[in-house]
Structures are given as C-alpha cells and as structure tokens.
Amino acid sequence: MANPTVQRLQGAQLIAALKASSIEFIAALPDITTVEGVLKPISRDAHFRFVRVCKEDEGVGILAGLSFADKRGVLLMQSTGLLDSINALRNNAVEYSLPICMMVGLIGKEPGVLPKESKDYGVRIVEPILDAMGITRLLIETDEDVPGIEPAIARAYRDSKPLAILIGRRPEAAP
Amino acid sequence: MKRDLCLAALARHRTDQIVVAVYHAAFDLMRIQPHPLNYYSVGAMGLASSNGLGLALGCPDRQVIVLDGDGSLLMNLGSLVTIAEAAPKNLIHFVCQNGTYEANGGVPIPRRGEVSFAGFARSAGYRDVHEFAELAAFAAAIPALLAAVGPTFVTLQIEPGEESPKDYGFIHGPETRKIFKTALQGRRRP
Prior knowledge:
By secondary structure, chain A is of the alpha/beta class.
C-alpha cells in the first residue's frame, strides 16, 4: 500500500489530462524529466499523432500551423528547449497570439522546491522569462495539481494564447 | 531564373493550395497572387518549413506549398529530417536559392554555392527531390510536381526579379492571420 504522505506525480494522469483536453498531436524532443512517465507512453499510444522534432522551436512552428487547422497539440520538451525556443515563441505564440501549449520538464529542479528557489540557475530563470513574455504558466508538482491542466488548455485555445505547463518532478511511469 | 517569374509560373497552376512563403518570396507572392490562403512566415526566420508541416498535418485534404529560402532553411535544417519522418503526402517544399540573406542586406550564406540543399533533402529522406535552374524547364515540370505524392523538395536557383512592395504592416497584422484562418476553415474539401 502506498504511503499517503509521499507526494506523487503519475505520468498516466498527465496523459489522461491531455486526452481530456482533446490533444491529438504531440511534438516532442526527449526530456529527462518526463521521458519515462510521459513521452515513451505517448509515443506508443495510438490516440496521439506523435511528431519527433530535431529542435524544440520546430515544435512551436508545427503547433502554430496545426492551430490554424483547429487541431490541438502539445510540445513536450525540457526547459533547456524552452530557452532555445524563445524567438519562435516570441513571434508565433505571443505576437501572433496562437494557442501554443507546452509541457516543459524543469530539468534539474529539486522535487517539492519552487522553481524560483531551485539551486539550478536554468530552472530559476524559467518562470521570470515566461512572465516577461506574458506566457501563462502552470506548475505541476503532484497529482493534486493535474486537474488544473484541462481548464488551462481550454483557456489557451478559447483565448488563443500560449500556455506553459511546467513539470516539477519526474512523473512515475505506469507499471 | 527571376524569382517573381518562377512564382508567377507556379501561381498559374495553383488551385486551393495553402502557400507558406518567407520574406522576399512572400512579398513577391503578395504582388503576384494575393490570396486568402497565403501564409506569410516572416516573423521568426527559419520556421516556414515547420509551419508548413503543421498545416500539412492539420489539413491532410489540402496541399501545402512552402516557399522557403536557403538562408531561412539553414536556420532550421533539422526540419528536413522531421518532415521526412512525418512524411506528409500533401507537402511540397520549394527552396529559392540565391546564396544570400537577401532580407538582411544580401550578405552571403555560409558555404555559398558549395552546399547542396537537394542533397540535404535527399539524405533526410524526402520522397522526391528536384533541382531547377532554367525557367522553361521549371514551368514545364510544375504540373507533375504538384501532382506527385509528397513530401517533395524542389530547389530553384534564383535571382531577384521585379521589386515588390514590402508591406510588413499587412504581413504582421492580426487581420492577415484572421483572413487565413477563415479561408482555411471555410473552404475545406468535403
């Protein structure tokens, strides 16, 4: 029996939230935080059209194109990829006001520690950068946070605005 | 080949295709064939091929024509591999090769004239790859290029033609994308 005091984040719940949000397409580069719990299961899941990209900003461009066709997608990447995609996000997501939804593993973040309090510089700067760009963010640390994903994605598509779902610990893979 | 003459030849065969165009090709397209299904990919250099892939995946019943530049493609070479892997049958990817960053002062691209973009695409795994340096040959080949199953890659050795107006305000304006989205949703094939 699981210890109820141990905080968990289950990849299956994250995937279920994406399905409940009518996400059809996943553009992805491997992210060490989510690779086992989210990326690998999604790559085997016939519900999703899985698009392997070579660089994260490609995913921004792909999701932009999909959005014009009213197709929903999520870009799965790690925070280093987010940092590498700033210019693409600046234009395609923010200036063009498109619903680019991202699930971003915060590589190096200590579980249970707020990103701004992380010892990792690359983690600490993520939220301030998103705030400076005006990109809505949602921190997912445990299963209790997961119910926030579906309404956040719904708002992103309703308002045609980008969204960054930040994953603060490694989601567990389903047994 | 003059770029605007190449685009005019292509325009004569366009029916209901989406055309994703970068920088000077986009301005030429605006002059030669203003169309609600023109998508101007000029806000973040290099993303045209990725925008085109997203549109091709999202609109499998419609052909997507990407009018890329060699400098632009150099910023996103990995997209060749991504496109080849995704293998959209409805994508045709043109690259206007002039060997320069024309929109940024005309300075040469690295290894100008020495690298083979067709070779990149062939190696990445595009279904078909074609190279044209003569307008008559290109014009004659257009019907077959558009009829082929993609992803198809086509290089055009070009030089600037007649100067086109550069209406950045229109290209970046929200109304432009609203027109595009409305056209895309309203004119889908049954």
